[in-house]
């Protein structure tokens, strides 16, 4: 019985070993047969990997004219390099006739990409918004912008956020998607800004002279160019003045420059009005205080002494009056 079990075990071991040897022999034969393809696949992948570094550098240089942000250029060049390497890997697998493996890899990459896209939806939205803003060239570092209730100079644009430095030196970090989805004003997209000054003159002023003097004062400070002109318009009859507005062009790409230009224009306008005696009125209030001499007593002693109030005489009851009358009659008797 024991010899029989021993023979069965030995036969099973021999059979298993023969299968392993046959399998290894088949693999070795397959490797020998596919050795040229394997060498060719390794050479193709190595060549593609080596070329990917040059592709990355070439794309980065090519994007310098279109995209000024280094982080976004780096992202696009890295993605291009990864795509180039992936194409080389697919080509190498095709050379090895591993179509089933290639199909499995592509299917797994698709599922993984879908899962990552759902998990990082907000991050990817900000990233692609940053790339879109960089490609469209509507925002650049150094531009003065107003967006989402904030205004300031752009100091950095990265893959997810845009940093804006406000006038009070505070840094505001705004997601790129919020900038792309909401309206924004960029002073850097134009080289000229139209500034407006509102003022008023007295009702006795010569309105035609006021218009001429005001336009000449502003035109001397900021000469009109390319068919532009200083605009002067009277607006309304105000409570204490005839109001008007001046509109003129300033070479500026930042709001601070526009404010400085407006300040200089106001000083020039005031100086011109002073030279020609033109009055800029301001509201005046007159307080009327009635005389109160007869209402306030003289503190020197001329006032009348206050009258004393009559003392109240207490009323007597009927029993008290009868008692007094009875006593008075007895004294008379």
Walk me through this protein's architecture.
The protein is α+β, with helices and mostly antiparallel strands. It has three domains: 2-124, Helix Hairpins (Orthogonal Bundle); 138-188, SH3 type barrels (Roll); 191-275, Alpha-Beta Plaits (2-Layer Sandwich), CATH 3.30.70.100. 54% of the residues lie in helices and 16% in strands. The protein has helices spanning 2-33, 35-62, 70-95, 99-119, 121-136, 176-181, 207-221, 255-275, 318-332; strands spanning 144-147, 150-157, 161-165, 171-175, 184-186, 192-201, 231-237, 242-251. The protein has a five-stranded antiparallel sheet with strand order 4-3-2-1-5. Strands 6-8-7 form a three-stranded antiparallel sheet, with helices on one face. Strand 3 and strand 4 form a beta hairpin. It starts with a helix and ends with a helix. The model is unreliable at 327-333 (pLDDT under 50).
Features:
single chain; 333 residues; alpha+beta; Helix Hairpins; SH3 type barrels; Alpha-Beta Plaits; 3 domains; five-stranded antiparallel β-sheet; three-stranded antiparallel β-sheet; 8 strands; rod-shaped; disordered C terminus
